[in-house]
Design brief:
The chain contains 1 helix and 5 strands, in the order E-E-E-E-E-H. It is an alpha+beta fold.
Amino acid sequence: MPENIQLIGSQDCSFSVPQNYLGQTPSSTDESFQFASSSCAAFSQVQERISNTGDTKGFFVDKTISYGNYIIIIFLFLFLVFGVVKFFVDFLIPKKLDWKQH
């Protein structure tokens, strides 16, 4: 059982108040500047990193499911059900029996 679980999320940041090296608002877009203010809002946790204790290796698990995942799950489930049904029909009804009436 993994013991070291780390949640990974994403952030949405907006930057404001551009300033040049003198602390003034830049007069043109060619002038070098940096943003003096930023505000970030964290989104919900979308991935989870799972690794064993004392091990740096791990893997990420998405905590969301998409429509594509639903389609793949349904396809695999139907494939499994039809495969199991076909196996039991072939096992219970041998081909040596002739069900056709001549």
